[in-house]
Design brief:
Low-confidence stretches: none
Distance between the termini: 16 Å
Mean pLDDT: 83
Number of domains: 1
Helix content: over 70%
Number of strands: 0
Length: 104
Amino acid sequence: MAISPAFNSGVQGFQRASQEISQSAQDINRAAQEQQAIRNDQIDRNKAVEASRSDEVAIQPAQPPARIDEALVNLKVEQFNAQANAKTIETADEVLGTLIDVRV
């Protein structure tokens, strides 16, 4: 009975999920910084409009990029992937322990 392929598959899957979690966190951070830059730019434009024409309506704030939503969903998906792969590693370890106990 080969335990190594199951164990290796679990480890590789866990590493892949970990990398995707890191990427999602970076995407969330980048999107948050871009949102803040957009807000700051919008505030500056509104101030300029108010200073030049006090009777006109200020520009509406920009909508947040959808990338944050996508990154948060991906983060949650990869969390489940990491948990599933950790369970695979745990199960392979238990099976290996059982085989060693049986053979001794």
